[in-house]
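Re: Re: ligand-bound prediction request (bumping)

Still looking for help on this. To restate: I need the protein modeled with 4'-deoxy-4'-aminopyridoxal-5'-phosphate bound, output as structure tokens. Inputs repeated here so nobody has to scroll up.
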Amino acid sequence: MNELYLNGAFVAPEQARISVMDRGFLFGDGVYEVIPAYAGRPLREREHLQRLDNSLKGIGLAPPLSPPEWSLIFQRLLSSTPKADQALYLQVTRGVAPNRDHRFPSQPVPTVLAMTKPMKPRDLAVAERGVEAVTRDDIRWLRCDIKATALLAAVLLRQSAEEAGAEEAILVRDGLALEGSTSNLFIVREGRLVTPPKGPLLLAGITRDLVLELADVAGIPHVERNIEIQELRRADEVWISSSTREVMPVTRLDGALVGSGQPGPLWQRIDRCYQDFKADLRRAAA
Ligand code: PMP
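Reply:
Sorry for the wait, this slipped through. Here it is.
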């Protein structure tokens, strides 16, 4: 495996060491980001780093590195396989907790990690048939806008979807469908794209924002408003979006067909825009 970045040094993964007293390990006291990179070019790097700063602010931790410092790290990590599509993973924790004390250390020394993993090529079966999703009660906390490493609820929800033979769990709180366990949610109703507004109950997805921008350019009407569970069930199209899964059409929900049961026409359009956007990024790298 390629080298990774840990606390100022580039090291082989087998050589990377953190303390068992790290608060990330003991409490899940940390935040993270995942940035897709195509042919060595991170997609929406500035926006991802801005969200990392927001997450750090949300947990009261100062940014350990500036955007140009992060950029240099990304370039070095990505340069080992410059033509490949890779996902950058960054994590910042509040460092070591002496005596496993919950209270913040007065002068935290954050643990800073960055590494890459190969991104799976697009699965053509998904574009042809779409994926299945199930709905689940949202058992997460009330600060889902913080991209926290404490992911136990998301892990349980995603596993529950997996065990039901589904790709994703769509999370419902107080009758509203908010997002997936690892993705944002869109529906299409009468030719209009709908996605829930940003707020503390969901993660402000970078792909979500890009989809709305692409919809704008393509002249697809869209609105940010709440989606009631009944409306989700009656939607003509349902999509999920995330950095590593792009925009996926959901064609079965809780065992019932979504619309015609095929990836819909608006999904086809937005997917084309998304693929063109990626191709431009790759061309800029050449
Ligand atoms: N919501 C949740 C809960 C997620 O984990 C993710 C994936 N990180 C997303 C939405 C999508 O965010 P992005 O488009 O920035 O990957």
